[in-house]
Amino acid sequence: MANMAYDTPEMDAGARLKAARLRPTRQRLELARLLFREHDRHVTAESLAEEGARMGVKVSLATVYNTLHQFKAAGLLRQVVVDASRTYFDTNVGDHQHFFVENEGLLIDIPGEEISVSGVPNPPQGLTIDSVDVVVRVKRN
Amino acid sequence: MANMAYDTPEMDAGARLKAARLRPTRQRLELARLLFREHDRHVTAESLAEEGARMGVKVSLATVYNTLHQFKAAGLLRQVVVDASRTYFDTNVGDHQHFFVENEGLLIDIPGEEISVSGVPNPPQGLTIDSVDVVVRVKRN
DNA sequence: ACGCAAATTGGAACAATTCTAATCTATGAG
DNA sequence: CTCATAGATTAGAATTGTTCCAATTTGCGT
Ligand SMILES: [Mn+2]
Ligand SMILES: [Mn+2]
Ligand SMILES: [Zn+2]
Ligand SMILES: [Zn+2]
Question: Looking at the predicted structure, is the pLDDT value of residue A72 above 60?
């Protein structure tokens, strides 16, 4: 077997779950296949559930929520906060930022190398930086 | 009368509403007084409603929501998206960014002069930049 | 195969927000 | 001033996204 990165898009769903120490249940396998079929997907619980339904995957909405949170906890997904009423999950866990198309609820990646934030002051005493998130809000002309 | 900026914190609630072309109702006046009493406040509808209740201001929650949105539309407040389950409003409408203390739901201002974002690529065709928002997520040690 | 911890599920519960339709009020025309 | 009316407020219902719950099912080590 060729040398392979720990977590690659071409890694199959089973291996992914194993690496994350999550039981490879039918639901998790099928959701992982949907999620990691392509790169850089941005989904909400609802959108993923719908996609599952369309693809004939039988999973309850509760399980979609559970799975997204478990994948996030396992580092397979990251959560992106751009909208006060919906939670987005991102299959791209690397360093990058986002354009957010307000009226469409669409997220577009900005590679981490392109963008940079400088001059972030030290946080107040007793606080440690977790992440620096940039959201470029854009509107369709 | 001394020369005065268009929208200053020391401006009284009535003048503020007049400048924003909003009828100076009792509720709007009282909420404006609470909001602009100090600089740089970050409130949620719930927190402002509670504060009102504490201060003996009689306003319904529906009106708090209406008022926050109207103030925002009038440019008196800006909305800050940092949490997927709550909407924050900011009395500081100038250029600045935020620390967000995750578990406490607390927002802390970062002056706009200190922080700077560079390398934002041009948005995809047909999209125009609305704002560039930086959220530095921090955790209590 | 069995037993059991872990996972799934439908539906109830929740929390934040918006909506509705009835009532009240600021305002400006007369 | 008085009044008519457009605009504002309100209680409570409705909606939405998400979490919780208790019952059932399933993956997996023995
Ligand atoms: Mn502020
Ligand atoms: Mn919600
Ligand atoms: Zn992304
Ligand atoms: Zn602020």
Answer: yes
